[in-house]
């Protein structure tokens, strides 16, 4: 396991991005878990708390940093902005269509799909393959949840949103623990 040296900035881009992702994962879980049947709501909360605790420990206590897999694009800012705007547009348009059809309860799965898709360009923008894996996982969960919500049961949409939040939180935790060493990083053993 690696962590940053004492000379590293207090708040890094990894910390900021991970925090944003953890907030998103938290919103997915907490906003949708009440729609889960039986004890699944409690199970989702417990799973989220475990993943969140692991992520918080790795990111804020160990201060694990992630080294880019490739050089970030000089177009990182516009790619990020465009991706976020496309996500918002997909959520707004898709939600309007679903609500007009009387299927507004399927919106959480649509949001999971849109959030997943918006992560995929980040891989190229920031030089981190993690975003491709995260984007594919979340968009797949969202797409499956949306299809099931529209063809079988609306509970599938909330289930997909909760699962997306759990996967996002767990992947951030796992990504922090397995992050390649950055320049200036020291192992936990080196700092003793």
Order of helices and strands: EHHHHHHE
Helix share bin: 55-70%
Number of helices: 6
Rounded to an integer in angstroms, the radius of gyration calculated over CA atoms is 18 Å
Tell me the distance between the termini: 14 Å
List low-confidence stretches. 183-192
Give the amount of beta strand, in percent. under 5%
Mean pLDDT: 87
Structural class: mainly alpha
Strand order of the largest sheet: 1-2
From the spread of the alpha carbons, the general shape counts as globular
According to DSSP, the number of beta strands is 2
Question: What's the main sheet like?
Answer: 2 strands, antiparallel
Give the secondary structure arrangement, pairings included:
Layout: E1 2-4, H1 13-32, H2 40-61, H3 76-100, H4 107-126, H5 130-151, H6 155-177, E2 185-187
Antiparallel strand pairs: 1-2
Helix pairs in contact: 1-2, 1-6, 2-6, 3-4, 4-5, 4-6, 5-6
């Amino acid at each position: 396991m690696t962590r940053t040296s004492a000379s590293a900035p207090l708040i890094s881009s990894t910390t900021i991005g991970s925090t944003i992702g953890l907030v998103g994962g938290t919103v997915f879980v907490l906003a949708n878990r009440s729609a889960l049947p039986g004890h699944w709501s409690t199970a989702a909360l417990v799973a989220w708390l475990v993943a969140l605790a692991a992520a918080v420990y790795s990111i804020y206590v160990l201060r694990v940093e992630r080294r880019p897999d490739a050089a970030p694009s000089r177009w990182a800012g516009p790619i990020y902005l465009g991706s976020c705007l496309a996500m918002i547009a997909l959520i707004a348009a898709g939600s309007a269509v679903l609500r007009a059809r009387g299927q507004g309860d399927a919106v959480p799965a649509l949001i999971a799909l849109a959030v997943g898709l918006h992560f995929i360009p980040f891989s190229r923008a920031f030089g981190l393959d993690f975003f491709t894996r995260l984007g594919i996982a979340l968009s797949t969960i969202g797409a499956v949840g949306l299809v099931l919500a529209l063809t079988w049961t609306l509970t599938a949409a909330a289930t997909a949103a909760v699962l997306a939040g759990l996967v996002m939180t767990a992947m951030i935790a796992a990504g922090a623990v397995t992050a390649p060493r950055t320049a200036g990083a020291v192992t936990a053993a080196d700092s003793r």
